[in-house]
């Protein structure tokens, strides 16, 4: 096995030369736990507990590492990422939580049972576009007595041009359609709520039980967090897949501009509005509101867009406030050091 099978490419190898000159070696983080990581080094996989980077590495990260005189593996640097799948941390903190790094494709997995929610797909699409990866929507549990084809058309209308696949992880129906995305050295991350079937899909693709699964509750189609950590697996056909805990809530982390991709229909309509800064609330000559009145655009779709736009504007405001607080903190440290420095 070599690093190229795990996604090593000129994007990483060219800038890595500066670290190679310092005696460091490359590796990819294949699993993340509390305070430790699994690191693939080309010849083997080793558990690492010492990391000297400002922020902890994420699953999928390429890092520069070395061994000390006692044989302890130390992560010294995180290499520049070509993509970063992230969301806002739960709660009141204005911080990003990294889901996975250096991902090429994201399987947005949603069940056709009580898990089905077009509004959540819009959030997941926005998160994926912000990351730089390519989304693929996977509607699981087509074996259940639901309107699978009708629901696929609903999602296709929300995400024109994005592949929307019907599968059943339980019966393996449609699983072969996912194999076209397993490409040598490319990484796929599976994202969705608990009980959507992410781990079962991975088990089907590999033909063995790599990840433990549980049945979902019948009354609300929710599952428990059987998968408690994120981990990267290499498929025999060459692709790499990342599984992780289900996402209960999708709080966005990014800029408002990202919505132009996940809401391309509204963005195109907005180009015909009378005012360039139209908020699509009550302005005269609003092409978006006209589309709602004519039935071309649903009220729910517009309401979802406005809600996410408001959320991202509020996030930008909180990020600016946090940056100002950090800047003030640094100046206080500088002033304090100056006051206590010896006078010449």
Question: Which descriptors would you attach to this protein?
Answer:
14 strands, about 350 residues, single chain, twelve-stranded mixed beta sheet, 8 helices, Rossmann fold, OB fold (Dihydrolipoamide Acetyltransferase, E2P)
Account of the protein in words:
This protein is an alpha/beta fold. The chain has 3 domains: 3-78, Nucleic acid-binding proteins (OB fold (Dihydrolipoamide Acetyltransferase, E2P)); 84-243, 3-Layer(aba) Sandwich (Rossmann fold), CATH 3.40.50.300; 256-318, Orthogonal Bundle (Ribonucleotide Reductase Protein R1, domain 1), CATH 1.10.40. Helices cover 31% and strands 22% of the residues. It has 8 helices and 14 strands. It has helices at 10-20, 118-131, 148-158, 198-206, 259-262, 264-270, 287-294, 299-340; strands at residues 25-33, 36-40, 45-48, 50-51, 62-67, 73-78, 84-88, 96-101, 105-111, 134-140, 164-166, 187-191, 230-234, 240-243. Strands 1, 2, 3, 4, 5, 6, 9, 10, 11, 12, 13 and 14 form a 12-stranded mixed β-sheet that branches. A two-stranded antiparallel ribbon has the order 7-8. Strand 9, helix 2 and strand 10 form a beta-alpha-beta unit. The protein is globular and about 70 Å long.
Question: What is the topology?
Answer:
Elements: H1 10-20, E1 25-33, E2 36-40, E3 45-48, E4 50-51, E5 62-67, E6 73-78, E7 84-88, E8 96-101, E9 105-111, H2 118-131, E10 134-140, H3 148-158, E11 164-166, E12 187-191, H4 198-206, E13 230-234, E14 240-243, H5 259-262, H6 264-270, H7 287-294, H8 299-340
Parallel strand pairs: 4-6, 9-10, 9-12, 10-11, 12-14
Antiparallel strand pairs: 1-2, 1-5, 1-13, 2-3, 5-6, 7-8, 13-14
């Amino acid at each position: 096995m070599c690093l190229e099978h795990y996604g090593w490419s000129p994007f990483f190898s060219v800038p890595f030369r500066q670290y190679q000159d310092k005696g460091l070696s490359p590796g990819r983080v294949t699993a993340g736990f509390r305070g430790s990581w699994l690191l693939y080094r080309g010849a083997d996989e080793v558990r690492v507990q010492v990391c000297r980077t400002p922020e902890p590495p994420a699953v999928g990260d390429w890092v520069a590492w070395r061994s000390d005189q006692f044989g302890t593996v130390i992560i010294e640097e995180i290499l520049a990422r070509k993509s970063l799948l992230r969301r806002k941390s739960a709660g009141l903190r204005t911080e990003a939580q990294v889901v996975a790094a250096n991902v090429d494709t994201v399987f947005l997995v949603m069940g056709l049972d009580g898990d089905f929610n077009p509004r959540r797909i819009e959030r997941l699409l926005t998160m994926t576009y912000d990351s730089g990866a390519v989304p693929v929507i996977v509607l699981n549990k087509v074996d259940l007595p639901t309107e699978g084809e009708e629901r696929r058309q609903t999602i296709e209308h929300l995400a024109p041009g994005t592949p929307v696949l019907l599968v059943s992880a339980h019966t393996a129906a449609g699983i072969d359609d996912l194999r076209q995305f397993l490409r040598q050295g490319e990484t796929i991350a599976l994202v969705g709520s608990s009980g959507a079937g992410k781990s079962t899909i991975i088990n089907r693709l590999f033909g063995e039980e790599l990840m433990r699964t549980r049945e979902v509750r019948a009354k609300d189609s929710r599952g428990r967090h059987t998968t408690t950590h994120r981990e990267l697996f290499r498929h025999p056909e060459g692709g790499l897949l990342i599984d992780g805990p289900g996402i209960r809530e999708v709080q966005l982390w990014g800029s408002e501009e990202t919505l132009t991709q996940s809401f391309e229909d509204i963005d195109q309509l907005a180009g015909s509005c009378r005012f360039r800064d139209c908020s699509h609330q009550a302005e005269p000559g609003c092409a978006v509101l006209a589309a709602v009145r004519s039935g071309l655009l649903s009220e729910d779709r517009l309401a979802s867009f406005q809600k996410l736009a408001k959320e991202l504007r509020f996030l930008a405001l909180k990020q600016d406030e946090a940056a100002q607080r950090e800047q003030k903190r640094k100046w206080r440290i500088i002033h304090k050091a100056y006051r206590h420095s010896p006078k010449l």
